[in-house]
Amino acid sequence: MCFGRRARCIGYKLLILALLCIVANILLYFPNGETRFASEHHLSKYVECLHGIVGGGFLVLIPAAVFIGLHNDDCCGCFGRENCGKSCAMLSSVLAAFVGILGSAYCVIISALGLTHGPYCFTHLGRNWVYPFTGSSGGYLFEYNRWSECQEPQNIVQWNVTLFSILLALGGIEFILCFIQIINGILGGLCGLCCGHEETYAC
């Protein structure tokens, strides 16, 4: 089993997921493609937490880059033993995986809170900008008839529910992949990168 190749596969998957998180978080800033709500600060406080850009994005790009670089590790090793140096590199990837764990967990938590509290919108009842679904503890997600309470931005409930759900799912997958790499890195560090040039690992 080649631990380095497995780490590289995980790295590429994390790279794609991190980019998707960044895009989803950016879209949250522009409901229906409009920029005025962001400039007027009429967005949910959870949108401004940057959980997809920073948490599920840049903090996950760090371990992704580390994992991808492991496969091409040309370290000559320590005490003249190549596998020893590469084992140290695998163990260092565990630290990078912990960074990914923190970033993805942040993305998951904020996404869950964003779904639970609902959007910040202008309602026809209070004629004011409020969080109309805060007291429902997420129950509004199944009460579609209440979604029309939000007048501005248009379709903001559907917009937020869709994107926060996507970020929740992406962050969860990132968390799982980083956890797998922690196990993979520990095993690779203990056992050494034992694959030869003829070994292949299908991503």
Describe this entry's structure for a reader.
This protein has 203 residues and is mainly alpha-helical. The chain contains five helices and three strands; from the N terminus they run H-H-H-H-E-E-E-H. The protein has helices at 3-28, 36-39, 51-70, 82-117, 156-191; strands at residues 121-123, 129-130, 150-152. Strands 2-1-3 form a three-stranded antiparallel sheet, with no helix packed on it. Helix 1 packs antiparallel against helix 3 (51-70) and helix 3 packs antiparallel against helix 4 (82-117). The longest helix has 36 residues, at 82-117.
In short:
This protein is mostly helical and 203 residues long. The chain is built from five helices and three strands; from the N terminus they run ααααβββα.
Oligomer: single chain
How many beta-strand elements? 3
* Distance from first to last alpha carbon: 13 Å
In percent, how helical is the residue content?
A: 55-70%
Name some characteristics of this structure.
203 residues, single chain, mainly alpha, three-stranded antiparallel beta sheet
Task: Set out the fold topology.
Elements: H1 3-28, H2 36-39, H3 51-70, H4 82-117, E1 121-123, E2 129-130, E3 150-152, H5 156-191
Antiparallel strand pairs: 1-2, 1-3
